[in-house]
Amino acid sequence: MNNEKEGNEDKGDPLDIGSISFNSEAYLSDLFRKKSLHELVQIEEDMVHNVRQLDSKMQQLVYENYNKFLTATSTVKKMQNDFMEMGKKMEILSKRMGNIAALSKDFSAAFSKHRTNVSQLSEANKKVEELQFLLCLPEKLRVSIGRTEEL
């Protein structure tokens, strides 16, 4: 589109098609006043050509990005499902960890009652083993002395 106002820095010009405050009625009124019929036909042909180009570019962009859009949509759905599954698994894990903590506490309480008894029995067992060793020592010494005399 050849527009006389392209170099214009003012984005508020109602006659500038690229302006945010573009006014189509004022633009057409200005064209009808300043342009001949031949120039108006040429401007119309340029606009039709530009619209077709823009439409073609837009279709190309849509086509190029459609697969990306589908892939992104699929990825988002998969992530949502994965997060939902992960949330469920985390709930199950949390419950199981709570059960483990409760069982551990129960075991600890049950074993703490018998811990001193086990400790005393362990010490008594060590003393019995020492006494057994001492009681068997004379016999072992006799056997050892008997072997050395045979040699």
UniProtKB/TrEMBL annotation:
A Gene Ontology biological process term: lipid transport
Cellular localization per UniProt: Golgi apparatus, trans-Golgi network
GO cellular component annotations of the record: cytosol; EARP complex; GARP complex; membrane
Predominant subcellular localization, coarse grouping: Golgi
UniProt KW keywords: Golgi apparatus, Lipid transport, Protein transport, Transport
Pfam families hit by this protein: VPS51_Exo84_N
Keyword Protein transport part of the UniProt annotation: yes
Signal peptide per UniProt: none
Record text on subunit structure and interactions: Component of the Golgi-associated retrograde protein (GARP) complex.
Family: Belongs to the VPS51 family.
Primary role: Acts as component of the GARP complex that is involved in retrograde transport from early and late endosomes to the trans-Golgi network (TGN).
Protein name: Vacuolar protein sorting-associated protein 51 homolog
